[in-house]
Amino acid sequence: MSGGAAAGTLLSVIAGASLLAVTARRLHPNDDLPSLGRWALADRGLGTVWTWWLLGGTVFTAYTFTAVPGLVYGNGAPALFALPYTIIVCPLAFVLLPRMWAVARRHGHVTAADFVRSRYDSAPLAMVVALTGILATMPYLALQLLGIRAVLDVAGISSRGVASDAVMVVIFAGLAVATYRYGLRAPAVISPLKGVAVFASVLAVCWLVLTRLGGPGGVFAAAAARLPSTSAHATLVLTPGQQPAFVTLAIGSALALLMYPHVLTAAFAASGPAALRRVSIALPVWTACLALFGFLGIAAVAADVNTPEHSAEAAVPMLVDRLMPGPLTGLVLGAITVGALVPAAVMSIAAATSFVRNVYVEYFHPTATPKRQVRIAKAVSLTAKAGAVAFVFGLRDQDAVNLQLLGGVWILQIFPAVAIGLYTARLRPRALLAGWAAGMVCGTVLVIRHGFSPVVPLGLPRSPAVYAGLAALLLNLALAVACTAAAEVIGRRSRPARSG
Fold first, then answer.
1. pLDDT digits (tens, 9 = 90+) for 307-348
2. Residue 356: beta bridge partners?
3. How far apart are CA 53 and CA 78, in angstroms?
4. pLDDT band (50, 70, 90) for residue 62
5. If phi over 0 gives left and psi between -120 and 50 gives alpha, with beta otherwise, what is residue 461?
6. Which 3-state string (H, E, C) describes 98-143?
7. Distance (Å, rounded) from C-alpha 115 to C-alpha 108?
8. What is the largest CA-CA distance in the chain?
9. How far apart are CA 128 and CA 419, in angstroms?
10. Which end of the chain is more exposed for a tag (fewer CB within 10 A), N or C?
């Protein structure tokens, strides 16, 4: 491969995407973005097509398109839980997102924590929801940089060199300028480019794989023979012992995804509930794309691709490098890189909005004008991007992965307050806080105790290994319900005493 050709093509794609972001003002050319609703949610004016591109591009990140095939490359069938997980998300989104949008529009909410503040009249609970969302989002944002770093390495730009660091800084600097000025409209404009580039690239690479490796039968036969050499427990078919972990991972991840601030930010930008329902119905197209990337992970095994140690996410970029000439490799790797820009921008905007609305205004400056809120949100958004870059430069890649695994467990613990709160306010705020605290501690301890594995044994006789986040959520819900029931009993018993 010609590393210079690949690197040049890759950088040209990145430059084109950055220039496209600067044209975001064309969505609403006469708008000076004087409020958070306009800056962070594009004035809630994105139609069905724009929302589909943006929400799909936000949920299906560049790291997803490298990590899932990387997990398949290293572990086989268990890594494919991402497919049922993203399918389960679709009916959940169909039910939850339109209802949440309607409530948010009616009351002027911009974040999920705004809804919790209004629903339960509890500032501490709202702050917990906001901070949990920010805490879970930051390592997720850093992972987008890790995906870019893996791509740059294959493109001939050393992932540990000054050139790689400089390229990543330039990429995010361009996006930071666009999002600073135009908010959510910048990633909204980039999202169709991401979608078209990713769909076209994966179809082209899959066609090459099937042509070069003897069709589907040849790919799976070669992978089945070579997979045990990548991991002693790797298999193309789930064993009975792996099935509980597979199911709980799929369900727990689906419940967690819709609680992330960046997903809700993209959804709140839709023009109405009907648009979100149509988008939810069409989201499986993105799952089909992810399935093709998973197939490429199997193809990487079949092609005997050897990734560096602890860098399985490089499997697909290395497979592309092997199959395609330099310029075409650069185009495909550029598509993956552009795929990181959309979720990274939305994540930084969502984290900034949560901080401003539910921490800064609530506790530090209650009389802040809309214009000042936007100004602070812009500064925090820049800080979030800079923090992600510094995080990747300063810590090991595995640290970011470990924190992201914890982030999935943490974000799931706000599900009772947000999702269940959409349908009932019966659970008491203090009970929800107690459940949240128990779930956070339980989930964190389980994951860390088992070497940062999201799948853990429950410690009971003959109990299977399950997703730690879902186990923590069940404890969370049980405690919230129990504390609410106890508070109601105590309340009923105290009323006659006060009236007498």
1. 877 777 788 888 888 888 777 787 787 777 777 888 988 999
2. none
3. 28
4. confident
5. beta
6. HHHHHHHHHHCCCCHHHHHHHHHCCHHHHHHHHHHHHHHHHHHHHH
7. 9
8. 88
9. 15
10. C
pLDDT, average across residues 459-476: 87
Residue partners of 62: CB distance under 8 A and separation at least 6:
144, 147, 148, 151, 336, 337, 338, 339, 340, 343
Distance, in Å, from the CA atom of 342 to the CA atom of 212, rounded to the nearest integer, reads: 33
The 10 Å CB-count burial string (b at 16+, else e) for 70-108 is bbbbbbbbbbbbbbbbbebbbeebbbbbbebbebbbeee
Residues whose CB falls within 8 Å of the CB of residue 25, separated by 6 or more in sequence, listed in order: 31, 181, 182, 185
> What DSSP state is assigned to residue 82?
H
Contacts 24+ apart (CB under 8 A), 44-47: 44/105, 44/268, 44/269, 44/270, 44/271, 45/269, 45/271, 46/188, 46/269, 46/270, 46/271, 46/275, 47/270, 47/271, 47/275
pLDDT band for position 16 (cuts 50, 70, 90): low
The DSSP call for residue 34 is: -
Question: In 283-369, where does DSSP find H-type helix?
Answer: 284-302, 315-323, 326-355
What 3-state class would DSSP assign to 365? coil
Q: How many angstroms separate the CA atoms of 355 and 210, rounded? A: 48
Unique residue bearing structure tokens 């909005």 = 353
Q: What is the DSSP letter of 77?
A: G
Residue whose C-alpha is closest to residue 181's, from 46, 326, 23, 60: 23
Average pLDDT over residues 412-421: 96
Q: How does pLDDT run across 195-239, given as a tens digit for each residue? A: 998 899 899 999 999 998 888 888 888 888 877 655 555 677 888
